[in-house]
Fido domain-containing protein
Amino acid sequence: MTTTDSLSTWLRVRHETDWHHAPTLRRNLTARDGFRAWCEGPVRQRDPARAKRLHLAYTRARADAARRAPLDFALLAAWQREVLGETEAPFRENDAYAKAGRERYARTPRTQSDFAACLREATDPEVALAARAARAYLDVAFFHPFADGNARAALLTLTHVLAREDVILPEVGPLQTTRYPDDPAGAADLATLIGVLNRRRG
């Protein structure tokens, strides 16, 4: 397993990424909800119970967006309890690993507070919505706060950030590709992809 701290790498890249060229998103462009369609299609085909749990978590994330709840770890943990069907979803206590051990996300005394600070930036009006959604998705992916289900948590976070401003993507499948913490161009491209999906008709 790697000794490199991929979380530290991401925090550096996060500040290097050019978020200011992210596209402007259109509100309510389509009646099709891509996340629900994904749950009812590919996820349900593989595992109906998993799809049901994910759908419940998404319903909760959308309701939290409608009431404009601040994005914080408590909110993510509530969604994650639905996703996993568990009574608890605590912040990880140790280093986490991904990609067969090729990426290590260190756990330090500052990790949870750093994560909270990053999540607060999801409503920063100085940054375009597509960039904020992409950045929040990658924050969850690379902070890796949970023992399991972080990819689902990241996607729920992205949809929540968008839904707070009345943007529902008609498709989410293309968002689910491998992301790397040392790739500022890839981070910016995720924001661009959100813009592309926003303009597709459902």
